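Consortium newsletter contribution from the modelling node. Members have asked for a concrete example of what our holo predictions look like. Here is one, prepared for the zinc ion complex that several groups have been discussing at recent meetings.
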Amino acid sequence: MIKGVLNMVRKSYKKTKTRIRKKRKNKFFSYAVIFIWVILLGTSIGIYSYNHSNKHTKMVIAATDNKNQNNRKSDDNRLNKQNVDNKSSKNDKSDKKDNNVKEKGSIKEKSNITDKKDSSIKKKEAISVVIDSNKKVENKKVENKNTQQSTTEQKTKSTTIENKEASKSKGTENAKDTYDNVKKVKFNAENKVIVIDPGHADHPNLEKEPIAPGSKTMKIKDGGGTRGTFTKTPEYVVAMKVAKKLKTLLEQKGFTVIMTKTDNSVSLGNVERAEIGNKANAALVIRIHADGAANASAHGASMLVPALTKCTAPIYDESKRCGKIVIDTLTKEVGMYNRGVVYRKDITGFNWSKVPVILIEMGFMTNEQEDHLLNSPDYQDSIAKGLADGIQKALTP
Ligand SMILES: [Zn+2]
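And here is the predicted structure:
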């Protein structure tokens, strides 16, 4: 009985074992088959896609190269621009509340025409190159008609056409049209009225006024100006002293001089200052300021002039012409570092002016040497003389 039972158990054990083995074998086989299929499928997809993507990859590589080249180009442009911006940013401390938007005018003129494809930054530059090219052509036509000139003209004309196309491609306001259609203030040797505008007052004026006629952008009337880091003398003190000395010298030269103010306690807004020049129909308004910068080594004189915009178009040429002559004469006579002409579209007193206007930054009150110099009566005399001589040179036929 027991034997029979044991045999049955043994048999059923063996049966189950073989069944399990069979099952395992089956499972193993099916897994193996699936595995092989997956490998085969994967390989064939791989080969297929490799063959087809080869062409695309080549194209993509080429495209990426182009992109990189373009990026490099526009990086260069940006760097160049930054360099110029950096240079001018040192000049700008006197108008401390001004934003950092640098007038591109100065950059524009130096820009390379051939880079016009690059980006929208270049479009504006192209526009001003057009203006300059046109002027060159005009000047040369008047001067002479030799053969050299005609080749230059041809070159200039073709450049102009290229640039016109460049500027057309962008549907923004065309500064060239604005500039061409406007009646420009011309040099007038008969007009001997000079307006001198000493910067700032003995207290800031935080009231706001529109930055330009019709503009919604409001700017404070007077941030108060800078002061000597070492002498502690405020900017307005130096500005008034030089302004009064300049008045005397210009009157000696036969000019009629109007001061926007002679008292440091009087605080004027920049619209009011501009209106004084406009009412006088001045041949030139000169605004007297001194600079300040975080960098104590910054030094030298800068000449700020209006950038070419819709509202400054009538006075742009003449302001620029006078500004260049005056800064060159001043720095040469006084022996100070010439930081050059800086084009600004963010200066309220420029934007409201209907007569040519320039703003001299006589040096940095944050620079130890210049701070002491600007406080010296002799140095103030020589600055006034340099300015007077420059103005005479600019306004005498
Ligand atoms: Zn100032």
